[in-house]
Amino acid sequence: MSTTATNPTQDAGVPAPRPLVRQPVVRRRRSSWIALGVALIAVSGAGGGWLWLATSDREAVVAVARDVPMGAELKAEDLVEARIATDPALDPVPADDLKKLVGKRTTVGLEKGSLLTASSVTDDPLVKEGEQLVGVTLSRLPATRLDPGQKVEAVHTPKESAASSDDEASKAERLQATVIQVSPADNSGDRVVDLAVNSIDGTTLAQWAADDAVTLVIVPDAGS
Q: Max CA-CA distance within the chain?
């Protein structure tokens, strides 16, 4: 009598385990990523080298932080340090000399953002040797602002010549002068203008000022 072997799990109604299927191992190709990484490193290195070259060719110089009129004394807040590309055509003041510039007088009007050059400042006083300082009170001034160091003509305009002809007015006495300072207007609108004139003309201008017989005429710059 033959006997048939039975699987106890089948008899118990438990399904037979499925055979394990081994999934194929997919190896990622890393060669493309490696190449990309090498390229990025190369680009970064080139960019860093360019940045180093760009910054290494720059120098610290003195620039103007705000508008400064001609003849004014420089203050610390008038100046600022800036870095510019080296250019032999430029001759700015090095930033190391910034503190030395405070207190110097400007020889030209300075504009905000411009570079300061050595010729833009001076230690020379506005009133030079052989000159005298005369204060003139004026109720009428040119609409153009008068700055220290500006050249003007003091014209003798006595009251009795107010109705004179144009020919006589053109022959009026004139003195060359330099503006040193202009005071704020007082309650009546008058301003005191300090003028430096040749010492020979100082007494004459003072007499004109005492008679209230002075009119200022701006002398155009030679380069204008």
A: 163
